Amino acid sequence: MVLLSRLVLRKLPKVSRYIAWDLELKTVVALSWAPSSNLSTRNSSCALPHIIGGSPRVRELSGAGLRKYSSAAMSMAVDDREAVKQSITSTVVEEPVQKESTARKLLTLVIIHSDGKVLLGLKKRGFGKGYYNGFGGKVEKGETIDQAAARELQEESGVTATDMEKRGILTFHFDNDPLAWEVHVYYATKFLGEPCETDEMAPTWFSVADIPYDVMWSDDPLWYPLLLAGQQFKGDFCFTNTTTLTSHTIEVVSSL
Ligand SMILES: Nc1nc2c([nH]c(=O)n2[C@H]2C[C@H](O)[C@@H](COP(=O)(O)OP(=O)(O)OP(=O)(O)O)O2)c(=O)[nH]1
């Protein structure tokens, strides 16, 4: 049963996973009972439930949809479950499940960690001015995300990383921007050149214990420890008024 549910789970799109997940708890529910108004309209808005997250996902269903879901599952005879599993699989293939919006801006962020210290730049202008941050910016037309990360690091800090690897993908939702910002986070320990001040950033080395979180984006303390511990992660963050973090989910992943 558990094995089968995992197989089904892997084949389902995110929205449907809410339903498949409970197969492991030995309850079954048909896809058509999912509260589509709750699950299907997610885009860059943060008033809607988050899909990424490690804790029991079924808890994120709410209201009438959840009540309908629970009572239907409880009253179902064990013998009927096989038929319902079939119905889930075929319904998923045939029904048009609305997908989350894929419209997003792509950005990069590179953090250098060397000899127990982290290189951060004080942003001198534009978005995030006054915050310490890694080095990065928007991916430009015609370049890959990796190329953009290397270019932005060079332009903003004067150094070239030689062992850069992607460690995280963070998605930011701002209440004043219909597009999500997808920031690809890179980690490096080796580099060529010496950090120097540029028009955009003033670089400084901080020991890990002294990372100045009070003058950084408020999501940073949530994922820097994962980054510095060598983990890969995905996060989803909602902001109002540009800088007020209102909700988030974050999870460690085995691949990006
Ligand atoms: N640490 C951290 N970095 C963030 C957050 N949100 C966010 O956009 N960033 C990063 C991603 C980018 O590296 C940078 C924003 O890019 P940018 O506006 O400086 O891009 P850019 O250099 O291409 O822009 P421009 O000055 O040329 O207009 O900030 C956050 O919450 N935490």
Question: Any overview of this molecule?
Answer:
With 256 residues, the protein is α+β, with helices and mostly antiparallel strands. The protein has 2 domains: 2-90, no CATH class; 104-253, Alpha-Beta Complex (Nucleoside Triphosphate Pyrophosphohydrolase). The chain contains 7 helices and 10 strands. It has helices spanning 2-11, 14-21, 36-39, 63-75, 81-94, 145-157, 220-228, and strands at residues 104-114, 117-123, 132-133, 160-161, 165-174, 180-188, 191-192, 201-207, 232-240, 244-253. The strands form 2 sheets. Strands 1, 2, 3, 5, 6, 8, 9 and 10 form an 8-stranded mixed β-sheet that branches. A two-stranded antiparallel sheet has the order 4-7. Helix 1 runs antiparallel to helix 2 (14-21). The longest helix has 14 residues, at 81-94. The chain is globular, with a radius of gyration of 22 Å. It starts with a helix and ends with a strand. The model is unreliable at 1-45 and 48-99 (pLDDT under 50). Residues 107-109, 126-128, 133, 136-138, 172, 181, 183, 200, 217, 219-220 line the site of 8-OXO-2'-deoxyguanosine-5'-triphosphate.
